[in-house]
Amino acid sequence: MSKILKMGYSPCPNDTFIFHALASGAINIEPYTLNITLADVEELNSLARAGRMDICKVSVHAAAHILNDYILLRAGGAMGRGVGPLLLTQEPCTIEALNGKRIAIPGRHTTANLLFNLMCREAGIQVETVEKVFDEIMPAIVSGEVDGGVVIHEGRFTFKGLGLSKVADLGKWWEDYSGLPIPLGCIAIKRSLGSEVASLINSAIRRSLTLSYVDPDQSWPYIKEHAQEMDDDVVSEHIDTFVTDYSMDVGEEGEKAVSRLLLEAAQMDSIELPAGPFFIEEE
């Protein structure tokens, strides 16, 4: 009799591209089967913090809060250069001009919010943050409900069509600040499942990603089903941007980047990280 593992990831094209073969059953992980939940990034962060997912895509910021109970897989994450969140406003301005303003964020424990807080700290400003689901942020800027917003996912490719202005590329800011790629999200698995299960799932994610690379037509309907109104070209650009070599294996540089961001998160949120390692061992 198979054992059920609860797994969560987002409906964004990079995740559905990576996990399609697992979701479709094309990848065998016997004696386990997956009960999959697709949800917004901040909802996934909350599910993991509540211990309700066995395997879960989480923001690296959120990962800092769950590492006593979870360990990070080496595959399946989102990391790279030139892939970070954007800080947008209606009219061009400087970061300093946003002091005291209302800024929408896609969740308190998202990596985007952590980067924004770090940049505000370095700029010496304070803002009022307003939490919103990521796809509500650009409309809120356009309507004037907020003075600006931190935009993730496909907003990176579509904001100009709404007449919005880029104040800062938070990923570029991080790269200049740390000298490292920006780790946006990672896959966490419960430590209680043990190293063998963690290695099994890590390997399965790599095989799932490989199948999507080899035959992308197989995953396309699944990707489009969950991409909703997203234009085909935007879907493709989304995948090309957020699925990188780091998605197959975090690598040494990726480990350094995650560790650095986890340390920044721990300091920002006044929490203590457990002793490492944060990632499962190399396969």
UniProtKB/TrEMBL annotation:
Substrate binds at K57, V58, S59, T111, A112. It catalyses: cyclic dehypoxanthinylfutalosinate = 1,4-dihydroxy-6-naphthoate + dihydroxyacetone. The active site is at H153 (proton acceptor). Keywords: Lyase, Menaquinone biosynthesis. SUPFAM superfamilies: Periplasmic binding protein-like II. CDD domains: PBP2_Ttha1568_Mqnd (cd13635). Its EC number is 4.1.99.29. The keyword Transport does not apply. GO terms for molecular function: carbon-carbon lyase activity. Coiled coil: none annotated. Pathway: Quinol/quinone metabolism; menaquinone biosynthesis. GO terms for biological process: menaquinone biosynthetic process. Belongs to the MqnA/MqnD family. MqnD subfamily. Catalyzes the conversion of cyclic dehypoxanthine futalosine (cyclic DHFL) into 1,4-dihydroxy-6-naphthoate, a step in the biosynthesis of menaquinone (MK, vitamin K2). This is 1,4-dihydroxy-6-naphtoate synthase. It comes from Maridesulfovibrio ferrireducens.
